[in-house]
Amino acid sequence: MKTSRRNIMIFIVVVLLCGWFGVLVDKLIPEQPQGDTLGMGIWLISPLLATILLRSFAGDGWRDIGLLPNFKGNLKWYVIALFIYPAVTTLVLLISYVFNWMDFSAFNLSTVLSVFLSGLLIQFVKNFFEESVWRGYLTSKLSNLKLNDFWLYLIVGGVWGAWHIPYFLVFLSESDIISVLPVNRWLFTIIGIVTMICWTVMYTEIYLMTRSIWPLVLMHMTEDALVNPLILDGYIKLAQGKEFLVSPSAGILTTCLYLVVGWLLRMKRKKMRSGYGVKSTVIVNDQFLKR
Questions:
Q1: At what angle do helices 214-222 and 185-210 cross, to 10 degrees?
Q2: Where are the alpha helices (DSSP H) in 104-148?
Q3: Cα–Cα distance between 291 and 26 in angstroms, integer?
Q4: Which of 19, 261, 56, 10 shows the shortest CA–CA distance to 162?
Q5: What distances in angstroms separate CA 39 from CA 18, 122, 232, one per listed residue?
Q6: CB 150 within 8 A of CB 263
Q7: What pTM was computed for the model?
Q8: For 171-225, how does the pLDDT look when each residue is reduced to its tens digit (9 = 90+)?
Q9: How far apart are CA 206 and CA 156, in angstroms?
């Protein structure tokens, strides 16, 4: 337990500082391509390097990384994970279409599907490494400490969100921010962190039920391949004044729907755990009576 707590603190410190080190590197090397700088690379890769080093040399080991797919009894969670983001995004788009909260004049279903499918492979690879960090390491280690569920959501989501602070404040372009929400960088950062804490509920619940990172890789893959291009590539445009409500990335309605999904998953996990407890008690009592 002491080793786990120490290593978790080391991991969190590295995560919170690595992006700012990347910002410093970019200031020292100003002539770099926009959106593809050495500093941004340092920010992206540092949490994974920290995870590898802590597991290899600091006593964490590799047994709880969640690399086994654990398909038995969990295939439905794979399917659910794969369709959460497409389902919620579709619902938000339909509501927005009915109430005229979005401009769909540039929307073409076949083009959007083509962009979505073409982006799946690269997002699968990218999110394998990311989920090895946030669920395969941080969520795994904190859950082993038997934290209260809500502290687990808050810490993992808060650290995940705080890791993005240099990205939101420095690396991300102004045009991308405005296309998501018409706010300044600081407010965008606060909204982004809150959004990730809310998302963390469903990520955590699926991980706790499957003890595998692979459903989360699929879920994160679909989010990056679908939601981001819709906005950043201009297939939809949010009506003025409705951005905070129905932005597919960080709108109030959208985030609340993901929070509801997470809460339903939590209720299901609790019900499953209760059922397993009753089943175990019956088996023990039956064995006792047979004696």
A1: 140
A2: 109-133, 140-144
A3: 72
A4: 19
A5: 9, 21, 22
A6: no
A7: 0.91
A8: 999 989 998 999 999 999 999 999 999 999 999 999 999 999 999 999 999 999 9
A9: 14
